[in-house]
Amino acid sequence: MKRKMICASMFYMLGLFFASFFTDWLVTAILVIISVIAGIAAKRKEILLAVFSFIIGFGFFSYYSRNIYEEVIDYAGKEVSFRGRIERIDVYENARAGFILSGEINSEQKARIVFYWEDYSCNIGDEIEFVGVVNEIESDYLFDAESYYKSQKIFLKANAGKNIKLIKHSGFNIRQALYSYRSSMISDFNRKLGAKEGAFLSGMIFGEKNTLEYTEKNALYRSGIGHVMAVSGLHTVLVAAIVMYILKKLKLNRYTSFAILAAVMLAMIVTVNFTVSVIRAVIMILIVYSARLFLRESDTFNSLSIAMLIIAIENPFVIYSSGFWLSVCGTFGIGVAAPYFCKEIKNKAVKSFVSTLCASVAVMLPSLYYFGGISAVSVLSNMIIIPLCMPVIAVGVIYVLSGGFISLLYPVKYIIRFIIALSDFIGSFGFSYMSCDKKLIPVIAAVMAFIFIVKIVTQRRKITAAVTASGIVFFLILSVFSLEYDSRKFTVAVLGNNENAAVCITKNDKAIVIDLSGNAKTSRYVEKYLNQRGINAINSLYLTKNQNSQLSAYSGNITAETEKLYLSGELAFSDNMGNIKTEKDFYSDGLFESDCFDYKITYKDGLIEIKSGERCITIAESGNSMPQNSDVTIYYGRISKNDIIDANGIYLDETENALISGLNNFTLTEKSGNFIIRRL
Which distant-in-sequence residues (6+ apart) come within 8 Å of 219 by Cβ? Predict the structure, then answer.
């Protein structure tokens, strides 16, 4: 029975995966027919189960896409009326809030949408009614919003429209009560520990990362322990263990204990906003404890398969969720692969190392796909730092479960400070984070498939371990060579979104950054690009507008060392800020020139020329005129009605009658005298 559930879950997920790529009905029919024929021809029950599961997964995803997703998307770009109940409230830095509303479009189509509004003096369970235009959710270079919301069955968004009405609902609401309790606990953490340590503990206990400083989050992910900020199996198991310990001391029978545990687990799911990793962990925990309830043995792989199947049946679009795949792969690594490879290992230190390595390798593929890189020191960090995190999480959980009555927060404050300092130290090394191009994803997928085949064919643990180790080494060497090869190319990256624009010029691990728009958010685009390219230093940083606020933004968001900083005027505050402690140079009259990699870079009044011999790239704000001899012309900023459109230009903003419009975050790479455009 155990292996049948694993087989059914695996091929059901495979059916969802294939259906997400092959959405055409003809292709769908052909694949289903082939699967049916293969199933009929097969004599083994396992093959019949696999084919049946694949067909169900493929068909369910296709049905869901055609009859639910597309029905909702048809309203995109139209003015509609909407009334929906508030399910979640996310407050952002710019004093706006994002409301997840569940209701009906035009009183005819059920849908969940994101509604952005400045007024958040309302509660979960209240209703919002408005008239306005709804649009599809679009991804940005910084955040894949489309996949994030799609995996939660949210397909449309709307900004504050007209005729907005807030319908208050009185009475008890369990979700609002838990949301208010969560908010009060976060407030307690901040008040008793301080802003920095309180934000860190809030992230560990509730997954609340909005108030955590960017540099600290970056250090955690570079050092490979960012998962402590995502409430998942580690936290859920700890909560379950504490609850069961208390229930055991109370000497309750196993049926009552299980009912109380289930109630606490469901409350935890609501408190962390239905995070998919927690849902997965709760299902597995309830399976484990229910097995004990009926005096049966549980199996991690079987429990994981059942959890995946339950989640994916309820929501086939969960395959778009990064949290789902990181949670599943991490659990497989630590709960399935690690026991398999550690079975004959007696030394505890070696066993701990191998277990941590299994978890790190298991999440390599989703980390590469979703984040464009992997931590090269994650095994070391997890062995050193995670033991320090465990008492912090335990203290936080006990504080929350006791309503603040049992408080051991004071000593935790200093442990958190040490964790932050240690992760910052480990993550500061240039080799700590390995950037990997997404073009290598098929390679790592092929390596993993080969390891799986070797395991099935040989059934030899040592051979499988040797092949796994060889595959990891092969991939890491290939990644290093690929990154080194790409770094030798002369590349011009245009980063930002419409009015946010910066140019990053790189070659041989050297980088020149020119901020054009003076928008505070632009530095985040630059930081992500530098991380993806594996660049740890900015040779020259030019700030052209709003330089006081921009220096503050870059010092807070850029982890790469800045060697030279160029400004157009004196600063209104101290010269040394945050990560930027270099000497400042000043240019005058809105003009500077720089020789870089056989190219001459000239900036004057918002226009950049990058020249080498006869070749020329020009970048300017929309509405400005460009030189006639430019090989590539790029316009940033909003387009006004009076702007003359360059038919051969590349526009970051959407426009008509241009060669390319709406192209944000891309690179120009020189090859054989031409420039190749690649979207980031």
Answer: 420, 423, 424, 427, 428, 559
pLDDT one-digit tens code per residue, 63-94: 898 889 999 999 988 899 999 999 888 777 66
The dihedrals phi and psi of 153, each to the nearest 5 degrees, come to: 65, 35
Distance between start and end Cα atoms, the chain: 45
State the DSSP string of 462-486: HHHHHHHHHHHHHHHHHHHHHHHHH
Contact criterion met (CB below 8 Å) for 412 and 395: yes
Token code pair at residue 64: 């869901």
Can you give the CATH number for the domain in which 496 is found?
3.60.15.10
**Cross-strand partners of 375:** 433
The structure tokens listed for 267 are 């409350």
Is residue 454, in this structure, part of any structural domain at all?
yes
pLDDT tens for 339-352 read: 888 887 888 888 88
- β partners of residue 156: 113, 136
* β partners of residue 678: 667
57 within a domain of the structure (yes/no): yes
580 found inside a domain: yes
Domain span holding position 657: 491-679
DSSP string, 245-311: HHHHHTT--HHHHHHHHHHHHHHHHHHTTS-HHHHHHHHHHHHHHHHHHTT----HHHHHHHHHHHH
Within a domain: 379: no
Same domain (yes/no): 477, 573: no
Q: Which CATH number does the domain housing residue 129 bear?
A: 2.40.50.140
